[in-house]
Give the backbone structure.
Amino acid sequence: MLEKFFYATMITLLLPILLGISPFSKPQSLNFQEITWKNHHIQNTFPET
């Protein structure tokens, strides 16, 4: 039970950081369009070979 909570917290904190979004800028809400755009932009910048 505690491990699931720990991993959920890590994912919640680390994912926005990895995506370049501050987890504190939009508390309890994520702009999924912004996340999708950032992922698309990253894929265009570093295309898979």
About this structure: The CA atoms of residues 3 and 9 lie 10 Å apart.
